[in-house]
Amino acid sequence: MSKPIETVAVCGAGGTMGAGIAIVAARAGFRTICHDVSSESLDRAARQTEAFFAKSVERGKMTAAGKDEVMRRLSRTTSLDDLVKADLVIEAVFEDLAVKRQLFSALNVICPDHTIFASNTSTLSITEIAGGSGRDDRVVGLHFCLPAQLMRLIEISPGVNTSEETLRTAWVWCEAIGQLPVQTQDKPGFILNALLIPFVNDCIRAVEAGVAAPADIDTAIKVGLGYRMGPFELLDLIGLDTQVRLCEAFYPITLDPRAAVPPLLRRMVAAGRLGRKAGRGFYAYHGNAMFGT
Amino acid sequence: MRYRILQRGESRSFPPGDAFFAGASDGGEVTIHLGTPVVADDSKAAVLIELGVECLGMHTGEAAGEEGSNVLGFARYRNGADPPSQLIELVRQPNTRPVAIDAARAVFDAAGLTVVVCTDQAGRIIDRLVRPKYNAALRFLDEGLATAKDMDTTCRLGLGYPDGPIERVVRGGLAYHHDVTKALLEVYGTPAYAPARRAVVAKQREERG
For burial by CB atoms within 10 Å, which of A237, B18, B149, B170 has the most? Predict the structure, then answer.
């Protein structure tokens, strides 16, 4: 069953996370197939990838020849059938259990027996995603951090039926691409989101309770704890609607009240204050005006 | 802005030898109480009292949301046994005079400290927000979610924190974490503040001596 990983496929490679994972894999020397249902998304991601590597050349982190070589390792497709030669498939598609299960089920028919399926889910259960894949012993969680091409951490989570061999192969591959893997149990949010989502919600509730203004909380967290970014700066960056989606995925599984969507967050999303991408979130980006003041 | 310090016992904000003492004078527009009982003094721009886990209202009394004067609370954030940070959490009440806030800011700004203003809530900003996270991390550790090292690595590499939750809470003192969370639990009553098992154990061991 064991076969060295030579070809990697990334599903959802038209998105930010998927494109980042593809960059990491190709940069480390693996043939990388970028798959997405949208060819436009793939084209856009390819342009961004090209620009990323061009910047790497500019900064002296790689040669122009090296860049060309990496770009040649990347291919694009909208057909799942083209993933037939993949030794490892990493999905970074929409955070929806049914979508991920359907994808793995389809791939199970296409890919050879040895192919490992990895999910980049941040909140869903690996065991549940693996269920119905037809190869739940060869499904593992590989949670990259955004932006994947810059962040070294990968949370590796085995599902209940993940084999030792699959876990070991995935671990070795993570190290081979220059990432730093940590192992977590298959629990909602793994380590990172299990700690981060409730914490960010607590910050929102503190604003709602009138404890302090977002800017004061950000300053307190940065100066007092040495974090690079305050929770509201982070929220505006990831998008307030994204935080709502994370909470909605997280809360029904955990029933942790801290993970429930804070009412203020819902109101801000309803008001179109989605963060940086909307020009307004907890901060306004056409100036320094801040929400609530 | 000149300030006078009245001190009894050791201050968590300003340990012996802290540069802040050098800036103090015998009089001034601001009086700072470090462990001394607060005395109303309307002749001052501000009267500041260092807080522990208690609310400012414990010192000033409260009046159905109408409280507030020239008396403010403050604490320099410190993770248990760690040295104090550069952060001052300045605690105001609903009717605290703006001029008192300005005066307090001026004193701490001049000392090179960073001031944030918050209302009179248990745990102020940081302890209110991070203690539940430390409790969760300690619980995850007990439940076997990941090793302490992996949890700390995840927070450092995945979130860019200077340290992870386990190393930080252990370094600050688990018994100290117990005391802070117990005080917060008393006020908020929510399970997130209930001291984690490892903190309870550390406290019991400390009490046993």
Answer: B170
Q: Which residues of A touch B146 (CB under 8 A)?
A: 182-185, 190-191
Distance from the B41 Cα atom to the nearest Cα atom in chain A, whole angstroms:
26
Q: Are A212 and B116 within 8 A, CB to CB?
A: yes
User: In terms of DSSP bridges, do strands A139-144 and A153-158 run parallel, antiparallel, or are they unpaired?
Assistant: antiparallel
| B71-76/B87-92 β-pairing | antiparallel
- The residues, any chain, with a CB within 8 Å of residue A217's CB and separated by 6 or more, are A203, A206, A207, A211, A230, A231, A232, B116, B125, B129
Q: Best of A17, A156, A183, A195 to disrupt the B interface by mutation (most B CBs within 10 Å)?
A: A195
Same domain, A68 and A134: yes
- Considering the domain architecture, whether residues B130 and B105 belong to the same structural domain is answered as no
pLDDT-based confidence at residue A2 (cuts at 50, 70, 90): low
Judged on CB neighbours under 10 Å (0-12, 13-18, 19+), A258 is buried
The reply to whether B111 and B31 lie within a common domain is yes
**Residue with tokens 């991601």, as numbered in its chain:** A45
pLDDT tens per residue across span A232-258: 999 999 999 999 999 998 899 889 999
Number of domains in chain B: 2
DSSP string, A12-36: TTTSHHHHHHHHHHHHTT-EEEEE-
Do B168 and B197 reside in the same domain of the chain? yes
Give tens-digit pLDDT for B85-125.
999 999 999 999 999 999 999 999 999 999 999 999 999 99
For chain B, the residues whose C-beta falls within 8 A of a C-beta of chain A are: 77, 85-87, 89, 114, 116-119, 121, 124-126, 128-130, 132-133, 136-137, 140, 143-146, 150-151, 153-155, 157-163, 165, 190, 192
Task: Tell me whether residues B162 and A225 touch, CB distance under 8 A.
Answer: yes
Domain total in chain A = 2
* Nearest-angstrom CA–CA distance, A141 and A123: 10
pLDDT > 90? residue A95: no
Does residue B209 lie in a domain region?
A: no
**Pairs of CB atoms within 8 A across A/B:** 137
Active site residue A122: yes
Q: How far is B156 from chain A (nearest CA, A)?
A: 9
pTM here? 0.92
Torsion of CA A219, A216, B183, B72, to 10 degrees: 120
Q: CA of B209, closest CA in chain A: separation in Å?
A: 31
Three-state SS at B54: coil
Cβ neighbours, 10 Å, residue B149 = 12
